[in-house]
Amino acid sequence: MKAGFAVLGLSLALAVAGCATVGEPEQEGPAAASTSNLTERPTELTREMLIGRWGIASFREEKDRARVTAQARSFCARQPYVITAGPRNGVMMHAADDAKLYELRLKGGSDGKTYLGFEAPPGDWQDRVILSASNDQWVMRFVDPEIHNRYGTFIYVRCK
Amino acid sequence: MRKPLLLAFLAGLAASTAFAQGRTPPPETMDIGDEPGRVSTPETVIEDGPFARQMVFFRSSEPPNTVVIHTSERFLYVVMGGNRALRYGIGVGREGFQWAGLQKVTRKAEWPDWTPPPEMIQRQPYLPRFMAGGPGNPMGARALYLGSTVYRIHGTNQPETIGQAISSGCFRLANGDVIDLFERVPVGAKVIIRHGPQV
Questions:
Q1: B165-167 and B75-81 beta bridge pairing
Q2: Which terminus of chain A, N or C, has fewer Cβ atoms within 10 Å?
Q3: Mean pLDDT throughout B115-133?
Q4: Residues of A in contact with B133 (CB under 8 A)
Q5: For B60-74, what is the mean pLDDT?
Q6: Taken in order A104, A106, A108, A112, is the CA torsion positive or negative?
Q7: Are B75 and B165 in contact (CB under 8 A)?
Q8: Which of B153, B198, B184 is nearest to B78 (CA)?
Q9: In total, how many domains does chain A have?
Q10: Does pLDDT of B4 surpass 80?
């Protein structure tokens, strides 16, 4: 099992009891050794492209992409996902399966891809890899194949 | 995939835990809610014990293909005629979410989409607001929609919850079992939901 797979007892008790709350922004990245051997390079994406209110939905098969995009947009009015600026030039977002907010940052990888994640080499297992991005929509999936298998590919549609 | 079932189980448990940052594996517990993202293969069936699919004696005047659900027993029966029925183990609504009635199957869907309820999004804000159908979807492999209600007979990515009362009023079967049921029961079939102790 992965070293980073973990839970604090109190947090678990709160989660099971349905008492989960969003905690204070995390200031530090993960302590586990990264699984990536990529080196970091500049990325053209900026955090301003991510900041804002988004409708989010996920899919697994390409045939579902269009209707999932429409579904994501429809949730802007009901339950948008809000990304704000972090204190260290990152953005405040959630990691997989974790209701706490963390500061994540964009990282260009030596493979030419752009990643979003903790202070770790680009392509770390906890990162998201950004598949496409514009001011109005971005598409990502988790690097970890197990997490990706569970959640599929995420579409973020900016709320107007 | 690496230890998929255990990983998925723990991941689903960790609704608001320090998955990303902590280091201690959580204890296993059956006190679980929906687990979006957990993968249960379509082949999963209940093979042992009372909740395994099996032909049973079942006295009924209902025509074949009628579905009879006994909430208190945690069984779903498909009437086969000749005082026989095919019985499936099911998960049912938790206390306060159980109900009785007469419905028809109005629609069937393979790998139905799933929309997490608002209260789940509040607890697990990292979830997508809409998840297209697939193996990680809590609705499972198939769904049979009951009349115009919000209730369904559907699969699950949590087959260990069969026999329990934890849903919001829907009836869940292991994915392999709901696929079998899906093939047997046509749209328009009568569905009788009984709630209460059996005589």
A1: unpaired
A2: C
A3: 88
A4: 64
A5: 95
A6: positive
A7: no
A8: B184
A9: 1
A10: no
B43 pLDDT above the threshold of 80: no
Per-domain boundaries in chain B: 47-194
What pLDDT was estimated at residue A36?
A: 85
CB A10 within 8 A of CB B113: no
How far is residue A95's CA from residue A120's CA, in Å, rounded to a whole number? 14
Mutate to test the interface with B, among A8, A24, A98 (most CBs of B within 10 A): A98
Tally of CB atoms within 10 A around B1: 11
Domain range for A137 is: 25-158
Q: Does B120 lie at the interface with A, CB-CB under 8 angstroms?
A: no
The residues of chain A scoring below 70 in pLDDT are: 1-33
Domain B47-194 annotated CATH 3.90.1700.10: no
Confidence of residue B158 (pLDDT cuts 50, 70, 90): confident
Residue in A139, A158, A156, A159 with CA at minimum distance from that of residue A62: A139
